[in-house]
Write a structure and sequence with these properties.
Elements lengths: L1 E5 L6 H12 L2 E4 H14 L7 H8 L4 E5 L4 E5 L2 E2 L7 H10 L3 H15 L4 E5 L2 H5 L5 E6 L2 H14 L6 H17 L12 E4 L5 H15 L1
Parallel strand pairs: 1-6, 1-7, 2-6, 7-8
Antiparallel strand pairs: 3-4, 4-5
Helix pairs in contact: 1-9, 2-4, 2-5, 4-8, 7-8
Bound molecules: 2'-deoxycytidine-5'-monophosphate.
């Protein structure tokens, strides 16, 4: 069983995907962490994220491993655990840029599907329901008011020790959204059969309970 959860940044995807996976005893697949790991490698090698040719060339030198449990992912790049380095604003922006490069998406597709083959999975990202697992029996597309999304992301960043104004977070989110929605390959769009949930005024538990009702009806 695959549960696909897609939506823009700051809608609460990671929080509810982890809770849902834990409640169901499924694995949690954070596909964004894979794009972030590639971005981390690109920045680490001093490559410009927009340089598609150089990024594609780097992929041949990268070895990526992802370990998943029901509420956690660990990403290793060439044998080093990079999980804790993946959530900085610089990596977020670079991940959005490199994710538009077809070679990157093609490289990460089998990695994601391999994890999906390991058992029942709650997978979250941008194209999980449309491209990675198009035949997933349950798909959700989360949305939320842009102001609410900026506030949520800002609180996360502050809690992680990053400084910066909420206006900056808001502008970064808007830029990332535009890029993720407008790229030619696998843009952020809802799958036709996805159930839409607006999380603006819902708690994580309320969202998870709605999802649980849908998933358990399919089990
Ligand atoms: O979910 P996230 O914020 O960790 O994702 C970081 C970036 O990775 C996001 O801006 C776009 C890209 N991404 C993608 O293109 N496809 C996915 N399935 C997941 C993430």
């Amino acid at each position: 069983m695959i549960v696909a959860i897609d939506g823009p940044a700051g809608v609460g995807k990671s929080t509810v995907a982890k809770l849902l996976a834990s409640r169901l005893g499924f694995l949690y697949l954070d596909t964004g962490a894979l794009y972030r790991a590639v971005a981390w490698g690109v920045l680490r090698h001093g490559i410009e994220p927009t340089d598609a040719e150089a990024v594609a060339g780097l992929l041949t030198k990268l070895s990526l491993q992802m370990e998943v449990t029901s509420n956690d992912v660990t990403v290793s790049m060439n044998g080093t655990d990079v999980t804790k380095d993946l959530r900085t604003p610089a990596v977020s922006a670079a991940a959005s840029v490199v994710s538009a490069i077809p070679a990157v998406r093609a490289w990460l597709l089998p990695v994601q599907r391999q994890i999906g083959n390991k058992g029942s999975v709650v997978a979250e990202g941008r194209d999980v329901g449309t491209k990675v697992f198009p035949s997933a029996p349950v798909k959700f597309f989360l949305e939320a008011d842009p102001t609410v999304r900026a506030q949520r992301r800002h609180h996360e960043l502050v809690a992680a020790g990053h400084r910066g104004a909420i206006e900056q977070t808001s502008a970064e989110l808007a830029g990332r959204d535009d890029r993720d929605r407008s790229r030619a390959m696998a843009p952020l769009i809802p799958a036709e059969d996805a159930q839409h949930i607006d999380t603006s005024s819902l708690s994580a538990d309320e969202v998870v309970n709605r999802m649980l009702a849908v998933v358990t009806a399919k089990l």
